[in-house]
Write a structure and sequence with these properties.
alpha+beta, 6 helices
Length: 249
């Protein structure tokens, strides 16, 4: 039916669509606030990540579009591909001249590799889920909103549970071809202030298949992250000339 020829029905339909929003509670408000982030012209964020091995180093990165980025290192601005190449070259030799116990998938120059320190009594080192490809908040929020199986108010925030597919997508970033999530679960919490998402936390647990040049192994991963969002739409940042050239102008 063409509502343009029935103005009364059109008005009634619009009122029906707006009614749920007018009665929106904390959960609906949080979802609406989260969905605004992917449409923002710009924003700033800081993320703290912990897993079984360590807390991750802080890095500064500049993105251009949805795929390209450069990361600031001790040796200047590098693309993820350049960092991966440097990590392979700098990887220390192990017994027999082979790769040592450092990175199996690369790490940031000057930063940690994939493995942590050995535990007491020579136990195998804890696995570090450090990944070269950075995960951006609006990508993670899109997964959270699109894949939660349960969500509810929890005091001054909103909490929920992720589907297994959503947890897998958050546990392994795109482009990490050496990692395959076999099982995953997760929960999240969202903080909203004045109609805007200001913080979210993720707790992810799972099993990964890790491919190395010599073997394939399965590892358990327990990862926690906290991300704060700032200056949505008002972020100002002067891109260094070296970074600009790396991104193609």
């Amino acid at each position: 039916m063409d509502l343009r020829s029935h103005p009364i029905r059109a008005v009634l339909s619009l009122c029906c669509l707006l009614a749920p929003l007018l009665r929106a509670g904390p959960t609906e408000t949080a979802i609406v606030a989260a969905m605004k982030l992917p449409d923002a012209a710009n924003y700033s964020w800081s993320t703290h990540v912990e897993d079984d091995a360590r807390s991750y180093n802080q890095v500064d990165a500049v993105f251009k579009g949805s795929e390209r980025c450069v990361i600031q290192t001790e040796d200047g601005w590098k693309t993820p591909e350049e960092i991966a190449s440097l990590a392979r070259v700098d990887q220390p030799a192990g017994p027999g001249g082979g790769p040592g116990g450092g990175s199996s998938g690369g790490g940031f120059p000057g930063g940690p590799g994939r493995r942590g320190r050995r535990g007491p009594g020579g136990e195998p080192p804890a696995y570090s889920n450090l990944q070269l490809n950075l995960s951006r908040p609006h990508d993670e929020i899109g997964i959270i909103v699109g894949s939660h199986t349960e969500i509810h108010p929890d005091g001054d925030l909103v909490a929920g549970t992720l589907s297994e597919t959503g947890a897998k997508l958050l546990l392994v970033h795109p482009g990490q071809n050496e990692l395959t999530p076999l099982r995953a679960s997760g929960t999240f919490r969202l903080w909203v202030r004045d109609g805007a998402l200001v913080k979210y936390e993720l707790k992810l647990d799972g099993t990964l298949a890790v491919e190395t040049p010599n073997a394939r192994r399965e590892v358990e991963v327990h990862q926690r992250s906290s991300t704060e969002i700032r200056a949505v739409g008002t972020t100002r940042f002067e891109i260094p000339e070296e970074a600009r050239k790396k991104l193609g102008g």
